[in-house]
C-alpha cells in the first residue's frame, strides 16, 4: 500500500486528507494520506533525504522553498523555485508547483468564458500565491498587472515576471480595462479584515476570482455577483492543485466534482 501525505508546520488545518480520501474511495485506491508535521529547523534534513516511508508528498507553508532546494524541479516549480508536490522517479525525487495551474483549471471549470474577455488580468497581492498565479497566467498568454499593499513586493514580481506593477491608488484605472480580477491576499478570510475595493470600474464581461475559500463566498465575490459579474471561488484552486499529486502517485487523473466540493466544504 502506498503512503503519501502533506508536509507543513503547523499542518492540522489541512484539507488535503479529505480530498484524497474522496479520490481513494472513488477510484478504489488502497493508500494512506497522512499529515506530516515537520518543524522549520528539521525541514532541510527531511527534504534532503525524503524518508523512504513516503512514496510522495505535498508540501505546504512554510516549506515550499525548502523542499524545492532538495529535489529535481520541473515546470512552474523550476521557474519559481518552489515545490508543493514531490514524487519519486527511481532514485530521484522530482517536484513542481501545481498552485498556478490549479488556479487556471479552476477558472476553466467554473467559468470557461473567462478566456474570451479582452484586457489584462489584474492580480491583487504579491505573496507566494500571487507569484504562482502570475506565472500561470503568463503561461496562458495573458497580460498581467499586479497591485499590492506593499508596493515594493508588487514591483519585485513585475520585474521578475516581466509584467506591470500598479500602485494601489491606480487600481481603479487598471480594473477599468481588466478581463479578470483576482484577489490573492488574505483579505476577506474568516477572522481577517474584509476587502474594500470598488468594483464599479470593471466591465460587464470581467470575471472576478478570489482564492480565499473560507468563507466560500467572500465579500468580494458577493459584491461582484451583486453587479452581475461572473465569479470564481477559491475552493476550485485548492482541489485542482491536488490533482497533480494523485496523478503522479497513482497514475489516475482524478475528477473534481460536486461531491468532492461538498465533502471539503463540510470541513470548513
Ligand atoms: P503570503 O505570501 O503571506 O501573502 C499575503 C498577501 O496578502 C500579501 O500580498 C499581503 O500584502 C496581503 N495582505 C495580507 N494582509 C493584508 C491586509 N490587511 N491588507 C492588504 N493586503 C494584505 O500568503 P499567500 O501564501 O500568498 O496566501 C495568500 C492567501 O491565499 C491566503 O488567504 C491563503 O489562504 C490563500 N491561498 C489559497 C489557496 C487556494 O488553493 N485556494 C492557495 C494558496 C493560498 P503585503 O505584501 O502588503 O503584506
Structure, explained:
The chain has 268 residues and is of the alpha/beta class. It is built from 11 helices and 12 strands. Helix 6 links the parallel strand 7 (121-124) and strand 8. It starts with a strand and ends with a helix. NADP nicotinamide-adenine-dinucleotide phosphate (NAP) binds next to helix 6 and helix 10. NADP nicotinamide-adenine-dinucleotide phosphate (NAP) is lined by residues 99, 125-130, 148-150, 153, 184-187, 189, 193, 211-213, 234, 237-238, 241.
Q: Could you outline the blueprint of secondary structure elements for this entry?
A:
Layout: E1 2-8, H1 16-27, E2 31-37, H2 40-48, E3 56-59, H3 64-68, E4 72-73, H4 75-80, E5 85-89, E6 92-96, H5 99-110, E7 121-124, H6 128-139, E8 144-147, H7 151-161, E9 164-165, H8 171-177, E10 180-183, E11 207-210, H9 219-226, E12 230-232, H10 235-250, H11 258-265
Parallel strand pairs: 1-2, 1-3, 4-6, 7-8, 7-10, 8-9, 10-11, 11-12
Antiparallel strand pairs: 3-5, 5-6
The chain binds NADP nicotinamide-adenine-dinucleotide phosphate.
NADP nicotinamide-adenine-dinucleotide phosphate binds near residues 125 and 126.
